[in-house]
Design goal:
Length: 321
């Protein structure tokens, strides 16, 4: 069975992916640096769900430190690298652009260099819907001009796509850029809106709503995102001379005010809204055209927003008993 290296394996999406790959019989090598963006114990809890599996091995290291990464991979040759690790968050990137350049661009450069040196051919890369910025046309297609990012986070993800292409062109590496669209579900990062709003509702605290609630996000349930990543792995294993970019979204944007209302309804509480000005770096809408992912990968999300919220609330209430 093939070996998959997953960077960011203790994070929200990474931990779900590792669990799924292990259940399907893959060998999984995990890397995470426990970035202090949120509490380490959250990631340790994620990792504990599969860290004892006989087909899983793990290293805590910083991908931006190339010597450490090279030493760890000296005796390892994964069939595919799934590069999910990176500094997350649009708003924090505005305060710390250099930190995002290091964790996202430098780390990706290091991985590509090691792939070239070791003859590792294939990588699925976690890009982001943020690269689309405020594109005037929706839904967002992969062939649109994305040269106008509106946050440092977005420009680091676009920069990585460009580096990936260069290494594909120069060294024949097979790469698929996966543009994720606001992933949610059990284990979602505590800073993200659905998790944060649920916590506030459960504590009978007001919800901060930036703008008039008319912004929209293409919320994608984590199991659907994981299915898309696994389809990308399969595609890379079965094809050569690959450089592709695909949207892994849900194709159904949800208004902010409707998102709040849906959580409140499913939680059985009446929301109290604290309306605030729009924030720098926020975009008006994310909306994925998923036809290319469907054509290449057979990608088709199965979980609608309300059902996903129900499953998130079930998890949330279980872990906060």
């Amino acid at each position: 069975m093939q070996t998959i290296l997953v960077t960011g394996c203790a994070g929200f999406i990474g931990s779900h992916l590792c669990e799924s790959l292990l259940s399907k019989g893959f060998h999984v090598i995990g890397i995470d640096n426990f970035d202090p963006f949120y509490d380490r114990s959250v990631k340790e809890g994620n990792l504990a769900l599969f860290s004892e599996h006989s087909s899983f091995s793990f290293a805590e290291l910083d991908l931006a430190e190339k010597d450490d990464l090279t030493a760890f991979l000296s005796d390892k040759n994964p069939d595919v690298i799934v590069h999910l690790a990176g500094k997350a968050g649009v708003r924090p990137s505005i305060a710390d652009p250099s930190g995002y350049i290091r964790a996202n661009i430098t780390a990706t450069q290091n991985i590509l260099d090691i792939m070239k040196e070791k003859g590792i051919r294939k990588m699925a890369f976690a890009s982001s819907s943020s690269v689309y910025g405020n594109c005037p046309e929706t839904p967002f297609r992969e062939d649109m001009d994305v040269s106008n990012p509106v946050s440092p986070y977005a420009f680091t993800k676009k920069s990585c796509e460009l580096i990936n292409y260069t290494y594909h062109h120069l060294y024949q590496l097979d790469i698929m850029n996966m543009r994720f669209f606001t992933v949610f579900g059990p284990r979602q990062r505590p800073d993200l809106a659905i998790h944060k709003f649920t916590r506030l509702l459960r504590n009978s605290e007001p919800i901060p709503m930036f703008g008039d609630g008319g912004t929209a996000r293409d919320y994608t349930f984590v199991a659907d995102t994981v299915a898309g990543i696994e389809a990308a792995i399969t595609y890379l294993l079965e094809h050569d001379d690959v450089y592709e970019t695909v949207n892994l979204g849900n194709n159904h944007p949800v208004l902010l005010r409707d998102m709040i209302q849906t959580i409140a309804e499913e939680a059985g509480v009446e929301p109290v809204i604290n309306q605030l000005p729009m924030q720098d770096g926020d975009v008006d809408i994310t909306y994925a055209d998923i036809s290319r992912a469907n054509r290449l990968l057979g990608y088709q999300p199965k979980t609608n927003f309300r059902d996903g919220i129900k499953r998130f609330l079930t998890w949330y209430d279980k872990v906060h008993k």
